[in-house]
Amino acid sequence: MTYPENLKYTKEHEWVSVEGDTGTVGITYHAQKELGDIVYVDLPKLGAAVEAGKSFGSVESVKAVSDIYSPVTGEIVGINSLLAEAPEKLNEDPHGAAWLVKIKLASPAELDALLSAAEYEAYIGG
Amino acid sequence: MSQTAELRKTPLNAVHHASGARMVDFGGWEMPVQYSGILDEHAAVRTAVGLFDVSHMGEIEVRGPEALSLVNQVSTNNAAKLTAGQAHYAGLLYEHGGFADDILVHKVADDSYFLCVNASNQDKDFEHIASQNKWDCTVENAGARYAQIAVQGPKAQATLQKLTSVDLSSIRYYRFVDGEVSGAPARIARTGYTGEDGFEIYVAPEQAEARWKELLEAGADFGIKPCGLGARNTLRLEAAMALYGHEIDATISPLEAGLEWIVKFDKGDFTGRAALEKQKAAGVKRRLIGFEMQGRGIGRDGYEVRVGGAAAGWVTSGGPAPALNKNIGMCYLPAGVAVPGTAIEVVVRNQPVPAVTVPLPFYKRAK
């Protein structure tokens, strides 16, 4: 698996891609693989405030519940409605169609602390 | 992550690693939790056939002229009713009526019984049984002499039949035969923990790897899948079979767990009998019942259950039911409300989510 260069990654296995002042957030290929078959995704409501490093929701596989930690601080401005009906999309396209939320960034400088694709790959052991 | 170096390994451990199974610490054993994926493996068992390494399970043998007396003292079911080649489910209780374990009792002969016990309880069970041995029986903690492989699903018989001269169609449910698989001695029992038809095969540890590979090959035409403990758990949950440490433990009696059918009060004395009689006379205060989630969310093991807004019980096992496309679980509730149709709430990460109690089991195979 090669991780897209245009995404930034967390050690908790989320990614964020930024366009203007909005970040799109998802979980990584590695995260979905570790979780196994994903059956449920719990996301915050539009307008909710999220904080970098704090849990804003959860992803559940058949076996386990895993918290999702926000890579950035800001406000939820978009939710992927696909996942309520088809959580298994997270196993199929975690870096694309199965993004989780869009966040209006409060402090874009936070992005500098995140991992590059190469750093993330090294972190998860290639 | 736990230190895998300290974990106990089954004879199939290297095979699991070589086939890319995800391994986890399960009660001190390094076991495969999944191969291709829990949903995929679950579906294989419900529709075709799946293969499980359950060599971590313990085996305890009770032998001697008075073997029946010891078995009937330590277990709740009546082993006097078994014929040679027959098995039954039973509770192994403490004096206070709580479960030390749940076990399968196989009658090999009048003077020989073979008990299959839970992996993490086997040493404790052995001590528990040996300590009650006033009949001079031989009690052997024999887990190291057996590997156990489960072949489960509607195509289990067709798969296994390719490898044995034993006429499998003649082995009825909860019967077993000491025969052979691929020419090597095997105890072949028509038992399982999935809610499907199938067999549990006990072989010598050094035979396990060859049998595993042959079974995968024999089942290839049917779409056999090697399965991990993840699918084993979702399958047994749909079938509402108890898991020690969840539905049953030292604080739970068979009467509470919906297992009165394995308690034979008319057989004479057994360990835990007095406590159970007392509990029965006083009335059972809490009972196990099934539930289905109605709101969004999955009730999982240990979550609080509320009735009328107040804490009333807890989820023993819960999760998605892959074959039923629902989120299900089992829970303990006060006996008065532990009946199908009670509106309850399961507290999922501080949020009460509506659910309703339903009868057990959730899944029953078509006969």
Write a structural description:
The complex is a heterodimer of chains A (126) and B (367). By secondary structure, chain A is α+β, with helices and mostly antiparallel strands. Chain A has a single domain, classed as Beta Barrel (OB fold (Dihydrolipoamide Acetyltransferase, E2P)), CATH 2.40.50.100. In chain A, 17% of the residues lie in helices and 35% in strands. In chain A, the strands form two sheets. In chain A, strands 1-2-3-9-8-5 form a six-stranded antiparallel sheet. Chain B has three domains: 4-55 and 146-238, 2-Layer Sandwich (Gyrase A, domain 2); 58-128, Alpha-Beta Plaits; 285-367, Elongation Factor Tu (Ef-tu), domain 3 (Beta Barrel), CATH 2.40.30. Chain B is 19% helix and 34% strand. A six-stranded mixed sheet of chain B has the order 10-11-12-9-3-13. In chain B, strands 14-17-16-15-18-19 form a six-stranded antiparallel beta barrel. Chain B has a five-stranded antiparallel sheet with strand order 5-6-7-4-8, with helices on one face. In chain B, helix 2 crosses helix 7. Chains A and B meet through strand 4 and strand 6 of A and helix 2 and helix 7 of B.
